[in-house]
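2024-03-11 09:14:02 DEBUG pipeline.ingest accepted 1 chain
2024-03-11 09:14:02 DEBUG pipeline.ingest length=156
2024-03-11 09:14:03 DEBUG pipeline.predict start
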Amino acid sequence: MTQLTLHINGREVTDEVETRTLLVEFLRNQQRLTGTHVGCDTSQCGACVVHVDGVAVKSCAMLAVQCAGRQVTTIEGLAAGDEMHPMQQAFHEHHALQCGFCTPGMIMSAVDMVRRHDGVLDEHTVREELEGNICRCTGYENIVTAILHAAEAMAR
């Protein structure tokens, strides 16, 4: 066991962890942050996306110990108190979910997408960028619409 200290959603966390523990397992099982989902166990679906130092990563492909001293943001840390993040609000307003399983990873990926493209997105870019996130329920239409609207709101 290794002692791990990192920041999760703005608070410092210290916990014991086996060195082989995946970040997604650490977040879900030890920190009880269950908004980060395990979908495929192969880094294909994107349900496990979180931000590490502001960059989207698939937490099923990263060891928890790799996050020592780093900032991790999960879907639970995206909102400002009771006020939803603009991306969360856009997903809600544009009905960009059905079962909701992929939604946290989609939102976390979308926030990073907006950051990397300085809020300047078009439909083609969004669809291309979402290739690492799988949704089995929707046709992606409302997801793309939500991301484009949120990008505009985030730019303001």
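2024-03-11 09:14:41 DEBUG pipeline.report The two ends are 46 Å apart (CA to CA).
2024-03-11 09:14:41 DEBUG pipeline.predict end
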